[in-house]
Specification:
Helix content is about 25%, strand content about 20%. With about 475 residues, the chain is α+β, with helices and mostly antiparallel strands. The protein has three domains: about 1-80, no CATH class; about 100-140 and about 245-315 and about 415-470, FAD/NAD(P)-binding domain; about 145-245 and about 315-410, D-Amino Acid Oxidase, Chain A, domain 2 (2-Layer Sandwich). It has an eight-stranded mixed sheet. A hairpin with a 5-residue loop joins strand 12 and strand 13. The structure holds flavin-adenine dinucleotide. Flavin-adenine dinucleotide binds near residues 112, 147, 408 and 438.
Length: about 475
């Protein structure tokens, strides 16, 4: 544990501009015992001993009041006291800095973080805004881990992007000295007539991705922790694996800040009008000016642009479980246990990474979900169903406890293709999102692609355009 002091404004609207008055007049400091931050970037500022100290109960009351005030200011959610806690150590002076950026990126999830990172690398002056903080617990990028696999059935474009991204993730992690990729291998399980798996075989072969085709006896020999049941054969990608998602995004943002990107812990109000957007307003009353704007707001895109995207981005509720493994049992941890996917069952899993337990989830779309206010507690039915599945697929884990859970949301487009396009009403506004349950791995390649479109122009791949995004869901990308 680690003693942290969190700055709180003494009066007026609770906005991020107040937070920057570190230790200055009008700031209160609450002292709270909080877990030690995972990375340098996550640390909150420390201030002088003159600051007033609140007891734990008052501190909690203060945060609740702060959250309520901000929720009143923005009905439907978004800003809350949480953004105060998430304020990174190194932040710019907030909105109204007097600077004009080349590009303002709104949203510091995996898409916005990598876009900001690449834009800065290409020499642009970048401001990066997030209302709740990079990879916060409501964000789609805020989970513990995400799969990076090359297989995409016959969908070559995503295999190419995954290949490019894996290289960029690995380069980034080695340069930044962050071991946030686990090369667990990815095992595709396939039924007898599995067209997707056959398409994957072909694409991997065509693009020279390393893989092995495994028949049933070979699967049983190599992976005895599985009960293969309805599985006929499999594909093993030895170079793929798992990204430690939340920490990876925070690392990208931290590196971007070191390189010169300004981080503004601000809620961007949806822009009105048409033509050339001169500035955006923030909830705290500031403005941020830039030549171009990239809205990478993930599941919030439909809230930010309700008329345009309210019916084209479909956030769905997704439950994730971590199953406790037997004591001292390494059969469910890498290198013995791979990451695995079985499309026929709509289930995927990750091994016991960093001792969190075996991760398992359904890849089936859940009910519609509000990223601000949606209930993030798993259901009893969900727990019972996953325990039944685990008992059947991994007999040694029959009766094993659920040790952690999460509720996150996919931000689906109608068919699962990403959205990367200009806003039809603004010449200098870009819409970026629609990760659709498979976007995380692609952050580096997507950021590179968006940065190039924003700075160099050029046509956008037709699959990513707004015109291809329908109002009826028919999933085609897995
Ligand atoms: C349970 C689950 C499992 C998944 N598994 C995988 C996987 O194994 N592999 C894979 O590749 N992908 C996976 N995905 C998908 C992937 O995680 C997402 O597609 C990806 O993280 C989306 O990133 P994003 O940057 O678009 O959105 P987000 O991460 O949600 O980021 C959007 C950010 O915008 C900010 N924001 C929104 N509105 C505003 C505003 N007005 N002003 C300021 N800030 C704002 C938010 O605070 C947020 O931080 C999974 C998703 C889930 C939920």
């Amino acid at each position: 544990m680690w003693l942290r002091r969190v700055l709180l404004p003494s009066r007026g609207t609770l906005g991020v501009n107040s937070v920057k008055r570190s230790g200055g007049a009008g700031s209160l400091v609450a002292v709270a015992w909080l877990p030690q931050p995972a990375c340098e970037f996550c640390k909150v500022d420390y201030t002088s001993s003159e600051d007033m100290q609140l007891g734990r109960r008052e501190f909690v009351k203060y945060l609740l009041a702060a959250g309520a005030a901000l929720t009143r200011a923005a009905p439907g959610g978004m800003p809350s006291g949480a953004s105060l806690l998430a304020s990174p150590r190194r932040q710019s002076g907030g909105a109204n800095t007097g600077k004009t950026y080349d590009v303002a990126v709104i949203g510091a999830g995996v898409f916005g973080a990598w876009t900001a990172y690449h834009l800065e690398r290409s020499g642009k002056k970048v401001g990066l805004l997030d209302a709740y903080g990079p990879a916060n617990s409501r964000a789609s990028s805020g989970g513990e881990s995400r799969i990076i696999r090359m297989g995409y059935g016959p969908d070559e474009i995503y295999t190419r992007w995954a290949m490019r991204s894996l290289r960029l993730w690995q380069d980034f992690f080695s340069r930044a000295n962050r071991p946030l990729f686990h090369r667990t291998g990815v095992l595709w399980l396939a039924g007898a007539e599995d067209h997707y798996a056959r398409g994957t075989l072909e694409t991997l072969g065509k693009l020279s991705v390393r893989f092995e085709r495994l028949d049933r006896p070979e699967l049983e020999k190599r992976f005895p922790q599985f009960a293969f049941g309805n599985v006929s054969w499999g594909i093993f990608e030895p170079d793929s694996g798992a990204l430690m998602a939340r920490r990876a995004v925070q690392a990208v943002v931290e590196e971007a800040l070191k390189n010169g990107v300004d981080y503004l812990p601000e809620f961007a109000v949806a822009p009105g009008g048409t033509g050339h957007l001169a500035a955006i307003k923030t909830l705290s009353g500031g403005t941020v000016s830039a030549a171009s704007y990239v809205f990478a707001c993930g599941p919030w895109l439909g809230k930010v642009f309700p008329e345009l995207l309210g019916e084209r981005i479909f956030p769905t509720r997704q439950e994730v479980y971590f199953i406790g493994v037997p004591p001292g049992d390494r059969r469910f941890a890498p290198p013995v246990m791979p990451t695995w996917i079985f499309n026929a069952d709509e289930v995927y899993g990750l091994p016991d990474l960093e001792n969190r337990g075996l991760k398992i989830a359904l890849d089936r779309h859940g009910p519609p979900f509000d990223p601000d206010t949606g209930r993030r507690v798993v259901t009893a039915e969900g727990v019972a169903a996953i325990r039944r599945y685990v008992a059947q697929r991994f007999p040694a884990l029959k009766g094993a406890p659920v040790v952690e859970t999460r509720v996150c949301q996919y931000e689906n487009t109608s068919n699962g293709d990403f959205l990367i396009d200009r806003h039809p009403a603004f010449e200098n506004v870009w819409l970026v999102g629609g990760g659709s349950g498979h976007g995380f791995k692609h952050g580096p390649a997507l950021g590179e692609y968006v940065a190039a479109r924003v700075t160099e122009g050029g046509a956008v791949e037709s699959r990513f355009t707004l015109a291809t995004k329908q109002k009826l869901q028919k999933r085609a990308v897995f």
